[in-house]
Write a structure and sequence with these properties.
- This protein is of the alpha/beta class and 353 residues long.
- The chain has 12 helices and 14 strands.
- The chain has an 8-stranded parallel barrel, surrounded by 7 helices.
- α5 links the parallel β9 and β10.
- The N and C termini lie far apart (44 Å).
- The structure holds phosphoenolpyruvate (PEP) and manganese (II) ion.
- The site of manganese (II) ion (MN) has 5 residues, from loops.
- Phosphoenolpyruvate binds next to loops.
């Protein structure tokens, strides 16, 4: 249920409502809009109705949330959630780009890739240290050694870092090194893992399972929020269909749909979404045009030599072109970006507003 306070409600009236709920051990979640305060309530509907909130001073009305996902729903929290990753804001006006290799392979590869990401305007570096590979014989990641290299890259470049956790027992370890925890497609419904990251005070990126419906995806996020961690962003990374030309089918309609159903930010990963580097740029532009709050792009200093996902990774030149071409799409839809000063330096590119 949500309690919509009147635009004229005083702080004392708002506090009074919160106190009445908290005294009965009912969980509340405050949403302070520009116009009014909305109080989200999680708890036994009967008990809440007995508290006669509707009659209290300053309360305009109460509304039940009909969807199965509550904390995640836009009804519960009408304003966009903006996640602050150490000063990098995801879910606001600005389009944020996350870039880096599929896997952390060695120091040279990571640091060179990190500088490509940084120079071309990404704010966050990606790199898998624990890799969920289809084959047990494929490169499985450097584990803690990889996380240490990510920390080193962060120190050198100033980029924030994101990396995946695949096992509940490693959640604290990964969280101690990264700025955003990634839950991969294969673990979207690993409920033990979701509950574990729900206990953290750290942003989480929840990728869509390869066969997950939108509702299953939103319910997976609900597991994390229900544990108390509200800093969750979604990542559309393509779903499995009958089509085999592409690795996955990127579901662009998921972007405006999830933005409508939920207040949480939506990122798009066109690298896994298509599996082909040549499709990454057009699909990135489409994702931004559809309302994505950011992109996650696989970028490698030498894609031909990559230990995983080379065919979908961009090299420096291709990533630079993508970032350059994105600017006009971003401006066309009235959003902003801050890709640094490389664009002005690029020969022949004019950045007139
Ligand atoms: C990844 O981003 O490294 C990854 C493994 O992607 P996904 O979980 O979407 O397959
Ligand atoms: Mn990958």
């Amino acid at each position: 249920m949500i309690i919509i306070m009147s635009t004229k409600a005083t702080t004392t009236e708002i506090d009074g409502v919160v106190k009445r709920l908290e005294d009965r051990k009912v969980g509340v979640h405050m949403s302070q809009g520009a116009e009014r305060t909305i109080i989200g309530v999680i708890g036994d509907r009967e008990l809440v109705s007995r508290l006669e909130i509707e009659g209290m001073e300053g309360v305009e009305r109460t509304v039940s949330i009909l969807q199965p996902f509550k904390l995640v729903s836009r009804e519960f929290h009408p304003e966009n959630t903006i996640i602050d990753v150490g000063g990098v804001k995801i879910g606001g006006e600005e389009i944020v780009v996350i870039a880096g290799p599929c896997a952390v392979e060695n120091e040279k590869q990571l640091i060179e890739s990190a500088w490509i990401a940084k120079t071309r305007g990404a704010k966050i570096l990606r790199g898998g240290a624990f890799k969920p590979r289809t084959s047990p014989y494929s490169f499985q990641g450097l584990e803690e050694e990889g996380l240490k290299l990510l920390s080193k890259a962060r120190e050198e470049t100033g980029l924030k870092v994101i990396s995946e956790v695949v096992n509940p027992r490693d959640v604290d370890l990964v969280a101690s090194y990264v700025d955003i925890i990634q839950i991969g497609a294969r673990n979207m419904q690993n409920f033990t893992l979701l509950r574990e990251v729900g206990k953290l005070d750290k942003p989480v990126m929840l990728k869509r399972g390869m066969s997950a419906t939108i509702e299953e995806w939103l319910m997976a996020a609900e597991y994390i929020l229900a544990e108390g961690n509200h800093q969750v962003m979604f990542c559309e990374r393509g779903i499995r269909t009958f089509e085999t030309y592409t690795r996955n089918t990127m579901d662009i309609s998921a972007v405006p749909l999830v933005k409508r159903l939920s207040h949480l930010p939506v990122i798009v990963d066109p690298s896994h979404g298509t599996g082909k580097w040549s499709l990454v740029s057009p699909m990135s532009k489409a994702a931004v045009a559809a309302g994505a709050d950011g992109l996650m792009i696989e970028v490698h200093n030498n894609p031909q030599k990559a230990l995983s996902d080379g065919p979908q990774s961009l090299n420096d030149d291709n990533f630079a072109s993508l970032m350059q071409e994105l600017v006009s799409v971003i401006h066309a839809i009235g959003r902003t970006c801050d890709f640094g000063d490389f664009l002005e330096k690029e020969k022949g590119f004019c950045c007139e507003e």
